[in-house]
Every structure is written in structure tokens, then in C-alpha cells.
Design the sequence.
């Protein structure tokens, strides 16, 4: 599938789904004057209202809207828009979220989690904010308080109607190649951004905790499974995929090397 190049692009960045790396890629493709980023302000709220309240003359310039947002902000852009996003296995996403907050005492959830000394299992059991359980269907559906079934059905409808691409963090490079093919970006090299380094991240999650995650994230589990099926089918259609993956790997390593970065600084 090819996308018309004059469409607006909206990157719906679901928290802890590896979005910072994609942000860096998009910022090389779209100029700053055509970009608006939805950001967290003071670890508590988003600047969504600032975007909505922009004068029409400013919103007309925006071709890339990116950041943490619920589905629906396309209505404030001028012209037709398509969304992209990445999903992540709920158990990995939640563990990443837990350790992310642990390193940030100013995070709005820090005291609720670590002030009470909650374990990872207790965190899953007791904390029920909108960016934790079933966050992926919640954000893609745009429904903050819908039932699991309603959010899942609406998320799938939105994906079919308004999304040009949904990737998988667990297959980031293959996802990036599929996305690049849709938009004609070639081989977009990258340097991994904001990757968590947690001592316990590679330890297996206890079965009791996995069962609790499944119970509290049933809609996200179903969404991931459905998108993964389509993703695998689409990946099989890519010619010379392994060669392209190797090219992406080597290009990214080359662009991230010390000597190249030093040369860029000298020339910049």
C-alpha cells in the first residue's frame, strides 16, 4: 500500500512502546516548522490544549503531529490525515513502565507505587490509571472510559479507517522497513533512543503475575494478537527482507559510529 505524500501524518505514541526512536527518525524527515509535538508538561499533563488552541493559520502548516495522545486529534488538522503507531506485548510494556517510573521520583505515579513499596505484581494489581491497563486499545480507540469490548471494537475500526500502519516494537526493524515502504522513506537509519536498562528486565515474570496481567489487559492482548497476525502476513510479502534488515542494521551502526558523529559535529 502506498500513501499519498500530501497527507498529514500523526504518530500516536503509546507510552513505553519504543516511540522515542521513531520520533528521531520523523524529525529528520519533517522540518520543524511543519511539526507539532504533544509533550508531557511537568510530569503531570499534556500540552494537547496548546495544539487545539493554535490559530488556523498555524494548524494549516502542520504536516506531522506526534506524541502521547488519544485518537481524535486529526479533526484539528487541515486536510486528510493518517495515523501510525506501534504496539508492544502488554507484559513487557507494563514491566518497562514500572521500572521507568522507579527511576523518576518526580513522575506523577512514583509516590503511589514506590512510596508504598509496591512490587511489580502489586503495581499490576493496585494501579489502574488509563496509561497502564488496556492503554493500547484505550489510546487507539480514543475512549478513556469505555468497556474493554467497546474499546477493542472501536480501536479496530479506527485502525481500519484512519491508520496507514501499525507496527510491533518486538519487530521494530521489520516494522520500520514496512512503514518506510508505505511512505517512500528508503532505508531510514536510527540510533536507539530512551532504551531502559533494568537489571530485572530479562528475568521471567512469575506465572501468577502473567495471569493477572492477562486478566487486566484482555483487550490489549486481543488487539496485539490480531495485529501480529496481519503483520506476519505483510512481512512475508517483502522481497529480500533479510538483506534489507542487514542493510538497515549496518547503516544505523555506521551513522551512529563515533567517527561519523565527530565528523557531523565538525561539519555542522
Sequence:
Amino acid at each position: 500500500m502506498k500513501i499519498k505524500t500530501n497527507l498529514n501524518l500523526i504518530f500516536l505514541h503509546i507510552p513505553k512502546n519504543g516511540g522515542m526512536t521513531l520520533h528521531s527518525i520523523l524529525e529528520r524527515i519533517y522540518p520543524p516548522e511543519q511539526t507539532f509535538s504533544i509533550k508531557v508538561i511537568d510530569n503531570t499533563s499534556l500540552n494537547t490544549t496548546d495544539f487545539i488552541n493554535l490559530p488556523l493559520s498555524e494548524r494549516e502548516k502542520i504536516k506531522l503531529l506526534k506524541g502521547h495522545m488519544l485518537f481524535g486529534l486529526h479533526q484539528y488538522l487541515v486536510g486528510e490525515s493518517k495515523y501510525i503507531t506501534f504496539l508492544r506485548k502488554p507484559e513487557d510494556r507494563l514491566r518497562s513502565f514500572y521500572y521507568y517510573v522507579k527511576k523518576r521520583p518526580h513522575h506523577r505515579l512514583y509516590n503511589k507505587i514506590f512510596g508504598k513499596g509496591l512490587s511489580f505484581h502489586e503495581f499490576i494489581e493496585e494501579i489502574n490509571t488509563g496509561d497502564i491497563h488496556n492503554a493500547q486499545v484505550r489510546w487507539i480507540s480514543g475512549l478513556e472510559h469505555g468497556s474493554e469490548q467497546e474499546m477493542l471494537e472501536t480501536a479496530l475500526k479506527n485502525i481500519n479507517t484512519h491508520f496507514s500502519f501499525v507496527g510491533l516494537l518486538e519487530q521494530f526493524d521489520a516494522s520500520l522497513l514496512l512503514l518506510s515502504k508505505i511512505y517512500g522513506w528508503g532505508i531510514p537509519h536510527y540510533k536507539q533512543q530512551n532504551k531502559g536498562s533494568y537489571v530485572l528486565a530479562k528475568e521471567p515474570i512469575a506465572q501468577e503475575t502473567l495471569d493477572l496481567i492477562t486478566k487486566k489487559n484482555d483487550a490489549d492482548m486481543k488487539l496485539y494478537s490480531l495485529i501480529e497476525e496481519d503483520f506476519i502476513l505483510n512481512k512475508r510479502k517483502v522481497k529480500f527482507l533479510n538483506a534489507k534488515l542487514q542493510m538497515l542494521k549496518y547503516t544505523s551502526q555506521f551513522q551512529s559510529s563515533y567517527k561519523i558523529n565527530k565528523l557531523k559535529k565538525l561539519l555542522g
User: Anything to note?
Assistant: The CA atoms of residues 102 and 110 lie 7 Å apart.
